[in-house]
Amino acid sequence: MARLFAILGDIHANLEALNVVLDDCRKEGVTDFLCTGDVVGYNAAPSECMKIVRELGCPVVKGNHDHYVASEQNLEDFHPNAAAVVQWTREQLTQEEIQWLFDLPFVETKMGIALVHSTMDRPETFGYVFDHFQAEANFICQKAPLCFHGHTHVPMIYEKQVSGVYRIDPQDFKLPIGRKYFINVGSVGQPRDGDPRAAYVLYDPMTRIVRFKRLEYDVQSAQERIRRAGLPERLAERLALGE
Length: 243
Ligand code: ZN
What we know:
- This protein is of the alpha/beta class.
- The protein has a single domain (5-239), classed as Purple Acid Phosphatase, chain A, domain 2.
- Helices cover 34% and strands 21% of the residues.
- Helix 7 (219-228) runs antiparallel to helix 8.
- The structure holds zinc ion.
């Protein structure tokens, strides 16, 4: 049977966006899911989103928000808006749900495809990859030819050739054999590339084609949920702006 992977992450407790993405996956005929982490944080449906992700039964790696919610870490160094949501999220989840977040691995592999939230070099420190220098450090530790990640909420392809590392804008792309790829799948629940539509990626292992998908969802309902929860207004605002 032909397989089709959906790779999604940085869901960030946005139920409206997650449901639209999963509907689209059904239409596309997705057979396998991979999740690049940050199931919670920023939006106001953490428990609901966690339940759905757990029901997918797929590999999930630990994001920084998953990590902070599940730890007793002091939040002084956090941006106040992020700290407010981490604190609020801790109060919404059961002990069993917090334990599930705590137990998430930093790195996963399925059918030779690697998965990490931030980078393969020191994944537990949650470094950001915004350019090919930062991607270079990742490739030193990335053994698999293909690795999906998230964290910046900006979709991107990083390609490692013998001659160096190159950045390729997100587009339908057939992965040539013999090179390594580190692909950022963007964010389902809080895109930050100026496009407010939910982002995820499809990968067909037979044709080796990756596709970057963007989907409109009910931003207003997600915003109302944030306001009802009493979370910072800025978190509602940025959803409509994709930032
Ligand atoms: Zn995130």
